[in-house]
Amino acid sequence: MTTLPIIEYPNDILTSPTKKIREVTTELTGLIDQMVATMRAVDGLGLAAPQVGHTIRLTVIEYRPDKGENKRAAIPLLVLINPKIISRSSEEEIGEEGCLSLPGIELDVARSLRIKVRAETTTGEQIQFRATGLLARIIQHEVDHLDGKLIIDYAPRRDALIKQYLATRDK
Ligand code: ZN
Known about the structure:
Elements: H1 26-41, E1 46-48, E2 58-63, E3 75-88, E4 92-97, E5 107-112, E6 114-120, E7 126-132, H2 133-146, H3 158-170
Antiparallel strand pairs: 1-2, 2-3, 3-6, 4-5, 6-7
The structure holds zinc ion.
Residues 99-101, 141, 145 line the site of zinc ion.
């Protein structure tokens, strides 16, 4: 399986509006397979379509802990088409996040502890589920991508952080 190059900030695709997916075509399932392969190749916990150049509402999520790590934290592969967070707890938790599109940056981000999600599957089924903890955090991060939002947007000193990030990339 070929992997896809990951688009890094700054690139307009990462902040562009994304389109709702109307139909699961063979082209789309091909893209999903490539996104899963890409996410696994770089050890990511999630990947959103804009990060590989597609401005559509699609994300893949998975967490496979290594041996010795807490296996109970594992998240089986989730492919979410047109995901929507329909409710979120006001209770938040601060956790460190990184992003494949912002290499080198790690930031504390406050996320809702519990969310309710609606999405479509590759078989066209509509699903609704609750998520907590790490999964809730990953889903909120990925849905942000579909809304053109990145973790740097949560940084208290955003402009300074971007300047610093761009400076290290120029080297
Ligand atoms: Zn990200």
